[in-house]
């Protein structure tokens, strides 16, 4: 077992991490501290910030080209691969300092533009509010950055939300195509479609009903099944928790493009991630690459470990496959 997971498990046992995480997911509203607000980034970054419903979004780019950008990415640093990032936190917590460091590395080392969306959170808001705010934020990002090639990325709850939102965008595109065919070609203002998704330890089913997760749950030092399910039901609100907007594992997998998934062997979401990869590969218009890292726990890609650095390089290689230029629009 790698050293990081041994340390995590020792710490989890010593301080009761599962109970602490469960309490955080189910607790009352907490004051936002703005770990990813513009003022938290150093002067080497230029950050454009604007409000969204009970939250904010910020687009992060380099203030000037830096030598620290990987050579393979340097010619691509100005325009225009653009990641729309959705943070984890059980739909109850805002983006954290760990998220800020992760996003900064994507910008600084690989030259991506990154827009972080700090979306509405429970207990004041539910999935319906989150999706409404996210769609508006995505429209704002597209309008502010015309011609960019967009990607969706998220970790944990944000990973599930990224896949759910990708399914929503596909459905909107299908509706627009049908409306155009019936209304003499009339169509709403185009919205660029994401060219790919990157999902990091995604929470794909808030009910955690996969029969294969019992062994995964026993190995997870951080997340408990009962805590996740209770938090997921609170996030669902009036929506059926198996509705794809809440649990994208129950959605259609066709026409979702390329998806890259990361998870660890020591996390409760592993079985859902493996099943997702198989379903995407079997679906028309979709494909999936998955990395199940031996000995790694939930959200390991954001951790300061060697395996995470390799994963970030793999993310950059994956996104470089997609050409610059205007993405397909709905």
Describe this structure in words.
This protein has helices spanning 3-15, 17-26, 97-110, 127-144, 157-182, 213-219, 225-236, 270-282, 306-320, and strands at residues 45-52, 55-62, 81-86, 113-118, 149-155, 196-200, 257-266, 286-297. It has a single domain (3-28, 46-182, 190-320), classed as Rossmann fold, CATH 3.40.50.1820. The termini are far apart. An eight-stranded mixed sheet has the order 1-2-4-3-5-6-7-8, with helices on both faces. The protein has 330 residues and is α/β, with parallel strands linked by helices. It has nine helices and eight strands. Helix content is 39%, strand content 19%. Mean pLDDT is 86; it is low at 10-17, 73-79 and 325-330. α5 links the parallel β5 and β6. It is globular.
Order of helices and strands: HHEEEHEHEHEHHEHEH
Helix count, per DSSP? 9
Protein structure class: alpha/beta
> Would you report the number of β strands?
8
- CATH second-level architecture: 3-Layer(aba) Sandwich
CATH topology: Rossmann fold
Instruction: State the name of the first-level CATH class.
Output: Alpha Beta
Largest sheet: 8 strands, mixed
Strand order of the largest sheet: 1-2-4-3-5-6-7-8
Q: Name the helicity range.
A: 25-40%
What's the N-to-C terminus distance? 46 Å
Walk me through the topology.
Layout: H1 3-15, H2 17-26, E1 45-52, E2 55-62, E3 81-86, H3 97-110, E4 113-118, H4 127-144, E5 149-155, H5 157-182, E6 196-200, H6 213-219, H7 225-236, E7 257-266, H8 270-282, E8 286-297, H9 306-320
Parallel strand pairs: 3-4, 3-5, 5-6, 6-7, 7-8
Antiparallel strand pairs: 1-2, 2-4
